[in-house]
Amino acid sequence: MIRIHLIMAPLISHAKAPLRYCSPYFYPAMATCRVDDPGALRHYPNFRRHCLLAPLRLIATLFMLQLSAPALAAPVDRVEKLIEQGRPEQAISTAQKLLIKSPGDPALQNALQRAYFSYAQQQNTIDSYRGFRERYSTGPLAVEALKRMAKMDWELLAGSKVREKIAQYRMRYPKGPFDDQAKRLESNLAFRDAQQADTIESWS
To answer: How far from the centroid of its chain's Cα atoms is residue 149's Cα?
Structure first.
């Protein structure tokens, strides 16, 4: 008995035929073809074609497995992959769906936080970072969002000549990265206002 293993071809049995042959169609299965008479292979018209197509079918199957790899990956890896690809909205949606199946998973919750920060970073506006801060008030990413808000706010107010706006900025970010500069600017504006008023009350 000779066993010929052909990849990706189902076994079709024929009771009266001395040769059990494999279908020429593509199926993702492993089949074993039995040949009762080795000489019958020479008379089988599709055998050579199967021998030629079997490696191609194997390559096609490996390619399909490669395409389906993201779906088979770990849930957190799927979210991280979407973030790396610059698709934070899809990453947020995927993480939320996965958290429904696995509520309270800390790894997924951290991945969701990173996805929200990536979305805020992609928008790169004060409102986007403020929205992130409203959702996540603690953690390294929350601190980073606050720093970016302080920087963007300072860039808007750096050329301001209104003392009240600088004071409001210092109240919003009391220990921000630009607090020292804001303090000096506020002092300069206070001195300017006192010079312009030139009264005892203004200098007191």
So the answer is: 24
pLDDT bin (cut points 50, 70, 90) of residue 157 is confident
What DSSP assignment string belongs to 22-80? B-SS--SSEEEEEES-GGGGGG-TTHHHHHHHHHHHHHHHHHHHHHTHHHHS-HHHHHH
Nearest one of 165, 167, 161 to 196, comparing CA atoms:
161
CA pair distance 138, 142, nearest whole angstrom: 5
Is-contact 129 101, C-beta < 8 A? Answer: no
Query: In whole angstroms, what is the distance from residue 115 CA to residue 92 CA?
Result: 6
Q: Which of 8, 19, 20, 10 is nearest to 53 (CA)?
A: 8
Q: Which helix (H) or strand (E) holds 5?
A: strand 2-7
Of 156, 202, 147, which is closest to residue 179 (Cα–Cα)?
Answer: 147
Alpha carbons 161 and 96: distance in angstroms, whole number: 46
CB 178 within 8 A of CB 151: yes
Q: Assign 27 to helix, strand or coil.
A: coil
Could you count the other beta carbons within 10 Å of the beta carbon of residue 181? 13
CA atoms of 104 and 21, how far apart (whole Å): 54
State how far the Cα of 60 lies from the Cα of 17, in Å rounded to an integer: 31
How confident is the prediction for the chain on average, in pLDDT?
A: 74
CB atoms within 10 A of CB 71: 7
- pLDDT, one tens digit per residue, over 118-140 is 999 999 999 999 999 999 988 99
